[in-house]
Amino acid sequence: MNYIDIAKSQIDSVINKAVQTAAEKGLIPSGDKLNGIVEIPRDTANGDYAATHAMAGAKTLRMAPKKIAELLVSEMELDGTYIEKVEIAGPGFMNFTMNAGWYGDVIANIDCEGADYGRSDIGKGERVMVEFVSANPTGPMTIGNARGGVLGDTLASVLDYAGYQVWREFYVNNAGNQVDLFGKSIEARYLQRCLGEDAVEFPDNGYHGDDIRALAEKIYEKDGDKYVNVPSEERTAAFVAFGLPHNIALMQQHLERYRIHFDQWFLESELHESGYVAETVQLLADGGYTYEKDGALWLKNTAFGADKDEVLRRSNGFYTYYAVDIAYHRNKFVVRDFDKVIDVWGADHHGHSIRFKATMTSPALGIDPEKLHFLIMQMVRLTRDGETIKVSKRTGKALTLNDLLDEISVDACRFFFNAKPDTHLEFDLGLAVRQDSENPVYYVQYAHARICSLLAALEQAGYPVKKACDLDLSVLSGETERELIKQLSLLPEEIKLAARDYDPSRINRYVIELAARFHRFYNACRIKGEENAILNARLKLADVTRQAIRNCLSIIGVSAPEKM
Length: 564
Known about the structure:
Blueprint: H1 3-24, E1 38-39, E2 49-51, H2 53-56, H3 58-61, H4 65-74, E3 83-89, E4 93-98, H5 100-113, E5 127-131, H6 143-161, E6 165-172, H7 177-195, H8 210-223, H9 232-257, E7 264-267, H10 268-273, H11 276-286, E8 290-293, E9 296-299, E10 310-313, H12 321-335, E11 340-346, H13 350-359, E12 372-377, E13 380-384, E14 387-388, H14 401-407, H15 410-417, E15 425-428, H16 429-432, H17 440-460, H18 479-489, H19 491-501, H20 505-524, H21 532-556
Parallel strand pairs: 5-6, 5-11, 6-7, 11-12, 13-15
Antiparallel strand pairs: 1-2, 2-4, 3-4, 8-9, 9-10, 13-14
Helix pairs in contact: 1-4, 6-15, 6-19, 7-8, 7-9, 11-12, 17-20, 17-21, 18-20, 18-21, 19-20, 20-21
C-alpha cells in the first residue's frame, strides 16, 4: 500500500470538499474542482505535505491565493482523515501535517506486507520485455556490459515490483559478418599453432584477443592437426560450431555469477533460418518503403523522420544488422505480443535508437512505436587511487566482467553499476572494497546487519519483536523517529517512479537515505532500558526498517547480511 498516495488523495479531497462548502456559503464564486499539486516539501518545518491549490485557483476564482487558502482552511473538515493540522505559508501554500495514526499505519503496513512491501499493481500485468547485455559472443563481456547487465536486471526487478509481467532476454548475435570473422580468426590461430606463427597471416580486421588463441588451443588439444588440410570454408564452419557455444556458455556462467538470469537467450540465427528476416524486408518493399541503389536494397528511413536512409540488404545478398534488428523487434511485438519492450543500450547507440524508433513507425511493420522504449546508459571509467584502470592485473588486457568479479564483490559491482544511467560513471575500485561509511553498499549493508544484531540481542534479553497491531505506535513522536517513518513510507512511491522513468538508480539513492535516517534514529533514540511501550515501538520501527532495506537490496540484487 502506498501511504504517500493515500495522504495526497486525502489532502486533495479535503481541499475540494472545502471548495464546495465555501461555494455553497457564497464565500467563493465557484465550486469547481481545484487541480493543485500536493508535494513533499524539502523543509520539514513546512509540514509533511504542501498543496498549491490556492495558487492554481486564483485565476478561476479571481481572488488572491492567500485569501483563497484562508477561506478553504476555515472550511476544512479533518475528522476521519490522517491530517492533524493545516497551516498557510507564503503566497498561499497550504501545509499539512499528518497525525500519529498515519505514522503508525505506515509501520503496520510494512509489518503486514513484509517482503512484498513496495509492490503495487500499477503495471496491471502488462507483459514487458527487457532486453539487455546482448554482448557479441565473439569475445568476453566488457565493463560496459557489466553496467548494462545491472541496470537491465534491476529495472526488470523494479517493473516486477510495480506489477508488470517481466521477461528478461539476451539477444545472441550468432550470425552475420562478425561470426564469419570469428571463425577466420580462430582458423588463423589454429593454423599458426599447427604450422608456426609465420606460416599464416592473421586477418587485419580479425579478433586479436587471447580468448581466440585459447579457443584455437582447445581445438588443437581435442583434434590435433585434423583440420590443417580441410577446406577453409569447412574448417571455419567447424570452428564457429565449436567456438560460439563455448563462448555463450561462458557468458551464461559469468552472468549467473553476477546474479543475472535470463528467461531466454534468443538466437539471431533463428530469424534467418525461419525466413523471418526476408519476410520482414519483403513487407517493407511491398509497402513501397525501399529502393535499390548500387545493387543494395535501402530503407526509406528519412520518410519516417530519420536523418538518413539505411541499407537492408547488401549488394552481395546478405542482410544487414539493421534489417535483422527490425525483424527481431517485429518478432517481439507481432509474434510474441509483448505490450512493451525496453532495450538497454550504450551511449554509442543513441543515434541508432532515434533512427530505429523512426523505423518502427512504418505502417508495413504493424508495430505501435510507442511500445518501444530505450534505456541509454553512459560510459564507465574505472579508477583506483585517482588513476584510470584499463587493464586486468591478471591478463594485462582490457578488464572484463569476469576479471572485475575476481577483484570486487558481486554486491559492490551491482550496487555501484546501478548508478543513474544518463550520467558517466566513475567506478572507484578502491572505494568499492573499503569497509567504512564512505562505501555506500557497505554503509547500507551495515545498517541492515546492525538492526539484525539489535533484534537478536534484545530477543535474548527477553524482548522479542511484537506485531505492530499489538503496539502503541503513537509514542513514536520524536523528530528522528518520524523522519525515519516518512522515509519508509516513500518506498512504494520510489519504485513507482523508478518504473515510470526507467531509472532503477532511484532505489540506490532511496536506500542510502533510509540507512542514514536509521543511523540517526539509532544514535538519538535509546531502545534498551526504555519503558516497555517505547522500547517495543522503537524495536518494531527498527524491524520494519530492516525489512525495507532488505527489499531494496533484493531489487538491486545485493545480499543483506545479518552480521558484518
